[in-house]
Design a protein that fits this description.
The complex is a heterodimer of chains A (314) and B (104). Chain A is built from eight helices and 13 strands. Chain A is α/β, with parallel strands linked by helices and 314 residues long. The longest helix of chain A has 15 residues. Chain B is 55% helix and 11% strand. In chain B, helix 3 packs across helix 4. Classes of the chains: A alpha/beta (314), B mainly alpha (104). Chains A and B meet through helix 2, strand 5, strand 6 and strand 7 of A and strand 1, strand 2, helix 1, helix 3 and helix 4 of B.
Chain lengths: 314, 104
């Protein structure tokens, strides 16, 4: 496996103080926390930072890591030498991150399978586990047509041996048509198992959509940036427009400007209050390539008395 | 804790007008009633006015509570801070939506 340079992950020097480490963690956690981050790889980075912090904040683990990793660079092939942790005693402390979320590198050094690991009876766990089944990500087409999809829900709990374990549950979920982003769907009796003969509770999932290459969803309305040629906008045209239900013919009125919105009623997400599709005109011009293209543009320019920047003058 | 069987389930969409009881909220978000009470006192979620036995929660409370739990645990934010963060995020969402509508 590859060596992980935890100092580099956190942007710290090797002689960083505990207070430097805590400060770095707080800043990075805020930057990459999946619920607030705008970064592309937020979730992966957040886990990486959490793991680095788990090691560097603990003096025992940090000392062992420093000793072990002195000669290694990030990404280098690495295997812990036998007896590397001689003289160290690590206490099991997983607060702040699910044990199942640590990398192989971490597990090989500090995991419950590693040697030199002193357990404390498993009383003090604070495991993050349930969040992975709070959201499901679906495609817009699924919401439109309704679809049955397979989902894996991960759930971390304490096993019979007192150690954390990940349970994976596979569900086939029938998603009804018309669900919109941010809505919740309820799966009856798929939540926590009841005690004794009690019925299981319900499971609630928040729906999130995968970004679509050209549709954009807002509530139940589907927005589409619709490219048209300048002559189509100016003279009007009947063009073919995609909708999740299939292509339709749309009439562009003459003298349309860029940004004009054309509403296709009822072509948004279906349901009690079905949404609309809103096509927003985007004027796209062909490149002025070749003599014929350039000549056509010059003729075009000469045919009009046109001052496009009037609105900018005084 | 037992293991639930793999199965096919039909999801029910929770429409705007659905209201959840405090038990449903506590169970769905895995919080205690005390924690829920604290969230209500800080104005993080709205319980609909009357006494605890008649608390009714809008479906959006699910997301708000999960978010508050998550940032409390991971970012050391207290409940008042979480409530503020939620309000600011709502404002950001509204602005983003406006931006999209204004883009040509």
């Amino acid at each position: 496996m590859k060596f992980k340079d935890y100092y580099r992950v956190m942007g710290l020097d090797r002689d960083a103080t505990q207070s430097d480490i805590k400060r770095a963690y707080r800043t990075l956690a805020r930057k990459y926390h999946p619920d607030v981050s705008v970064e592309a790889d937020a979730e992966a980075r957040f886990k990486e930072v959490g793991e680095a912090y788990a090691v560097l904040r603990d003096p025992e683990k940090r000392a062992a890591y420093d000793q072990l990793g002195a000669g290694f660079k990030s990404g280098q092939d690495f295997r812990p030498p036998p007896d590397w942790d001689q003289g160290f005693e690590f206490h099991r402390d997983f607060s702040g991150a699910g044990a199942s979320e640590f990398s192989d590198f971490f597990e090989s050094l500090f995991g419950h399978g590693a040697r030199g690991f002193a357990g404390s009876g498993g009383r003090d766990f604070s495991l993050r586990g349930q969040d992975t089944h709070a959201k499901i990500v679906i495609d817009l087409e699924d919401a439109y047509h309704g679809r049955t999809r397979n989902f894996s829900l991960k759930h971390t709990d304490i096993g019979a041996d007192g150690r954390p374990r990940v349970q994976v549950r596979n569900l086939k979920v029938r998603i009804p048509p018309g669900v919109c982003a941010g809505q919740h769907i309820r799966l009856a009796r798929q939540g926590s198992v009841g005690v004794g003969k009690g019925e299981a509770g319900d499971l609630y999932l928040e729906v999130e959509f995968n970004p679509h290459p050209f549709y954009h969803l807002e509530g139940k309305d589907i927005y589409l940036d619709l490219p048209v040629a300048p002559w189509e906008a100016a003279l009007g045209a009947t063009i073919e427009v995609p909708t999740p239900k299939g292509a339709v013919k749309l009439k562009i009125p003459p003298n349309s400007q860029a940004g004009r919105r054309l509403r296709l009623k009822g072509r948004g997400l279906p349901g009690k209050d079905a949404g609309d599709m809103i096509a927003i005109l985007k004027i796209v011009t062909p490149p002025a390539s070749g003599d014929a293209g350039k000549a056509a543009y010059r003729a075009f320019a000469e045919a009009f008395e046109f001052s496009p920047r009037d609105s900018l003058r005084g | 804790m037992g293991k639930l069987p793999n199965s096919t389930v039909t999801a029910e969409i929770l429409e705007e007008d659905v209201r959840l009881t405090r038990y449903e909220i506590c169970e769905a978000c895995e919080i205690s009633v005390q924690q829920l009470t604290e969230f209500i006192e800080e104005g993080l979620v709205d319980a609909g006015g009357r006494g605890p036995d008649e608390w009714q929660f809008h479906v959006t409370s699910l997301r708000r509570i999960r978010f508050a739990k998550s940032i409390r645990r991971d970012l050391g934010v207290n409940t008042a801070g979480a409530a503020l963060a939620l309000d600011l995020l709502d404002r950001i969402d509204a602005l983003k939506q406006k931006l999209r509508q204004l883009e040509p």
